[in-house]
Amino acid sequence: MKPECLMMKDEMMYEPNGPMAAITPARQEGGRLSLGVCYYPEQWPRALWQEDARRMVELGLEWVRIGEFAWSHIERAPGVFTWEWMDEAIDVLGRAGLKVILGTPTAAPPKWLIDLYPDILPVDAEGRVRKFGARRHYCFSSRRYLQEAARITEAMAKRYGRNGHVHAWQIDNEYGDHDTVHSYSQEALLAFRLWLKDRYASVDALNRAWGTAFWSMHYNHFDEVELPNNLVEEPSPTHLLDYYRFSSDQVRAFNRVQADILRAHAPGRPITHNFMSQNTDFDHHALGEDIDIASWDVYPMGGLLNGRLCEADKARYLRHGDPDQVAFNHDLYRAVGRGRVWVMEQQPGPVNWASHNQSPADGMVRFWTWLAYAHGVDMVAYFRWRQAPFAQEQFHAGLLLPNSEEDQGFHEVKTVADERRRLPEGERRGKAPVAFVLDYQSRFATRALPQGKSYNASAIALDWYSALSRLGVDVDFIGQHSDLDGYKLVVAPDLVIADPGFIERLKAAPAKALFGPRSGSKTEDMHIPADLPPGPLSALLDVRVTRVESLPPFHTETVLYGNESHVAGGWRETIRTAETVLATFDGAYRNGSPAIIGNARARYVATLPKGDLLLKLMEDSLTWAGVETLPDLGDLRIARRGRLRFAFNFGMAAAEAPAPAETAFLVGSRMVAPADLSIWIEEGRPA
Ligand code: GAL
């Protein structure tokens, strides 16, 4: 006899669609803060579900995400579905008043599936198969896996697509986590060759693009091409770039199959995917076109330790996190979601997976929730409801301790749930004056050919963003496809592969532009432009880059800017220009060579400015573009959402919120304590 859990529920006895209820249409929400939590009913005795759901609602939560790792619980053996527990879980949560976000379970294929089709497993760059036993053990190029992922998604979507308690869907979980976008399997190789045929049509075109005249790399047929791993020396950078592009397309195609199934069976329910902080392994703008809401997972403590800051600053912000890393991602994913962004997993206390796992300061869970809302996020869900006393993440906090007692995060969520009543509804994040370009092709390009071990495009972009934030300026992210209307300044710190069409549109727009070094330095084929870098930027600026150098971290360059000496480092270019020279290099090597140049429309920076030089450059550029700034905010950060103004204190000393005299604060007060915030309304000044 089959154990109870493997028995199929009699379909006639259960109404798979649950009670029909009005579902919020995909693009109508927003303007108020909703809260939620990630929950794993399959990990807890059923006896707990009811009480858990009741406590969630009492806490003020409205959303609950379930199911994203539940495949082996809903299909214990091929075709043997055990829906009954999930039916009940959705019912219990829904009847308690929670809206369910249902995850498709494809981030964790079950063991029986892997045993049936071992080719699903991904292969690492050394050619080793990555085994079953954790998660994300699939290759995006496995056709079998694509079919299986479609099959389980369709089965779930048919069963729950019209369920009145299921209000949204999450596809898979964190594409790219555990370095899983790139796989070097036999199927990836075959798919890559097809992708290349499609891109180049003729092998001669590929030979030209990849520069195979170099080192006798010429190909006679597409079928001779290999994946760019395990080589004696580095591959052609165009080979690598194409492999990164291909891998990115595979992720999008994989996601698209599930999105299409969900659209067919779950009408009106928004579809999301939970992205990761600053992952650039695939084109997030492109994938964002296939979903309704971008969500991302906010783990600021790990973000700090893995991040850009020096050790002294990491020590300083140990329990508050990098003051800009989280906001950067909120702003980025707001663009990826074309205005709609959620936090699907908010760190509720210490986690388990970083190099070290310090506790956030008390107050930070509340702080991060309001930070998200201030940056346009409409829903924040905490990961997770209860700390698991078993398995990989037993050191990871939840809102509850393993014994169901309330932990610190729980109390902070309660505070937020109460505080939100003091805020008016309907306040939406407006358009920012500054557009910040994040171009994924350019990130692939610098990864393919970094030309310096310490060159880190993500850290550079965050440094530039941080300088803007310290001046109190709101930022929208854009890609090269984006509309430029309404922006006063476009900032592009690392636009390596500049699309000539984008530069033309920029030229036609009223916005001014600020470009970082390496901008326009490679063509679409990853060659040096025929008329030298910055290639297409010459439509805006009369400048030619004649030499580039990467510089080790122990060395800095001196830059004279406004009669003051400043510091730059990591990268330096020698340029020839007819434009106004705004700053020069000062020192024994090529003394006086231009470091920052510009004209009435655009500026180009031939190095990586550090510290006060970067701040000064931003301040001057904002003034030049007519963007209002605040004096350097230090550890305070400001954000605007409609008429609402927020001040967040990341520092260790109290700081003053830049609010007009006589302001009546909705939350907090003029003096903002460390790890605390204030909220007020600025009437007559919509964002
Ligand atoms: C995320 C992941 C979750 C959980 C969490 C722990 O990356 O999506 O499933 O593992 O990390 O912090």
Structural notes for this entry:
This protein is α/β, with parallel strands linked by helices and about 675 residues long. The protein has 3 domains: about 325 residues, Glycosidases (TIM Barrel, Alpha-Beta Barrel); about 190 residues, Rossmann fold (3-Layer(aba) Sandwich), CATH 3.40.50.880; about 45 residues, Golgi alpha-mannosidase II (Immunoglobulin-like), CATH 2.60.40.1180. Helix content is about 30%, strand content about 20%. It is built from 18 helices and 26 strands. The strands form 5 sheets. Strands 11, 12, 13, 14, 15, 16, 17, 18, 19, 20 and 21 form an 11-stranded mixed β-sheet that branches. An 8-stranded parallel β-barrel has the order 1-2-5-6-7-8-9-10, surrounded by 4 helices. It is globular, with a radius of gyration of 26 Å.
- Work out the helix count: 18
Question: Percent range for helical residues?
Answer: 25-40%
CATH topology annotation of the largest domain: TIM Barrel
Q: CATH homologous superfamily of the largest domain?
A: Glycosidases
Mean pLDDT: 95
Query: Gyration radius, to the nearest Å?
Result: 26 Å
Q: Uncertain segments of ≥5 residues (pLDDT<50)?
A: 1-16, 20-28
Shape: globular
What is the total tally of β strands? 26
> What ions, cofactors and ligands are bound?
beta-D-galactopyranose
Largest sheet: 11 strands, mixed
Number of domains: 3
Determine and state the CATH class of the largest domain. Answer: Alpha Beta
Helix and strand content put the structural class at alpha/beta
C-alpha termini separation? 65 Å
So, CATH architecture of the largest domain?
A: Alpha-Beta Barrel
> What portion of the residues fall into strands of 2 or more residues?
15-25%
